[in-house]
Amino acid sequence: MPSPKTEFDAIVVGSGPGGATVARDLSRNGKKVLILEYGDNDPVKGTIPQVISRAFIPGKNVVITTQALPVIRAVTTGGSSLIYCGTAFFPPVETLKRYGVDISVEADEVRNDVPIEALSDELMGAGPQRFHESALELGYDCHKLDKFIYQNKCRTKCQLCMYGCPFGAKWNARHFVDDALEHGAKMINHAKVEKVIIEDKKAVGVEYRHNKETFRAFAPKVIVAAGGIGSPLILRKSGMRSTGFDFFFDPLVFVYGKVKGLGNGKAIPMSAGIHFEEDGIVMTDFNMPRMFKVAFDLQILKVKQAFAYSDVIPIMIKIRDNLSGEITSRGWVNKPLTKYDKMKLDKGAEHAKRILSNAGATDIYRSWTTAAHPGGTVKIGEHLDADLQTKFENLYVCDCSVMPEEWGLPPTWSILALGKRLAKHLMAADQTDKIRDEKVSVLRPEAAFKAVN
Ligand SMILES: Cc1cc2nc3c(=O)[nH]c(=O)nc-3n(C[C@H](O)[C@H](O)[C@H](O)COP(=O)(O)OP(=O)(O)OC[C@H]3O[C@@H](n4cnc5c(N)ncnc54)[C@H](O)[C@@H]3O)c2cc1C
Question: What's the pTM value of the predicted model, to 2 decimals?
């Protein structure tokens, strides 16, 4: 715990790709940053119990929609990048420019900070290779995908990407958090921020729960980066009631097929893919950890298939869904799929079946729908200006929630670029900011309660 007299230039709420980037770049430029993170900071073990505690606790990190779709996020230092697949899609630079946000420079700068490269042939597993070859044979524009992976640390026949990668091969936002901490940032884990403290229409700090007590922390800049679901919940309690509506969550389904003699089923997921840009569909190989496959199969009562893992090629179909729905005040998601969303999923699944059949697969079947990229809940142009500032001075948002429209592709590269741009903006604003004497402190809980009541 920082002492009550600790001073900070900025508070960053949440340590996923958005928060971690801002915290790192500010800290490297000499700013004192306090990171408040709801989840733990335990080292990645790559074990089933650890991934369950971080990503599968209903209500905390897996949210079941009113329509029975699971939406997965990870609550831990580094956020969902701990369980993500590490696939890098170049940001929608031109789309963001239409909203006055130019991240073309930062999108390239990200390449200096994180590994971005397609996997070598040696690292591509048997399933992904068969998917890739079969798609090319049928004339699809299928190509290897860029990955946020340090390939010299990566290994073949491994399935631990989504368990956090205990070998340090998959880049995740903890790398940036560690960098921020080395440059003087402080982090408090198990700190759940409830709301931003607003005085005279300016953000001055946050209120958070830690060890069943309420604390307040103060700083002249507050950056909310609690993710597509977490950020609107905090902002609504802070006076921005219209956040958390009409968002996207990139629904996806898997189609599985069995190719005899293919191998043990372990491979790095999303090694190759096809982007049907017009249709808003992306399709990739998706060898997942055994536990995930068992869970998805049991969801549709495929009991026999649940215990088949070797020789299986899973293919993921993810779509660009229409903006709709609401995050409820309790943090649940209410978002029915539209008929267009369902048609896209069906169309993608048909392509996948064709590719699997051509690859010689039998026992082809389709999973239930799930979702993994909630965003657009606190949109640029609606809730934020082009500098990611809210209607309250000194209150910024930087995570997947700021995306102004549906995009349908993995967003991490975009979030990293937005984080770098925001850090630059805050540094520049700081230089011209004459109010440098604001006192910043973390109060003891007794004092906090006095202040609250
Ligand atoms: C299974 C899976 C696979 C994925 N694969 C890819 C991929 O291959 N490529 C890609 O680009 N993207 C992928 N993604 C998406 C990517 O992981 C997310 O888009 C990205 O992590 C979002 O970053 P963020 O900063 O917006 O939020 P998050 O990563 O969600 O981080 C938010 C942080 O805020 C914390 N938090 C939440 N509420 C509070 C609170 N009240 N107080 C304090 N802290 C709080 C959380 O614990 C978390 O650490 C995948 C996601 C999943 C689930």
Answer: 0.94
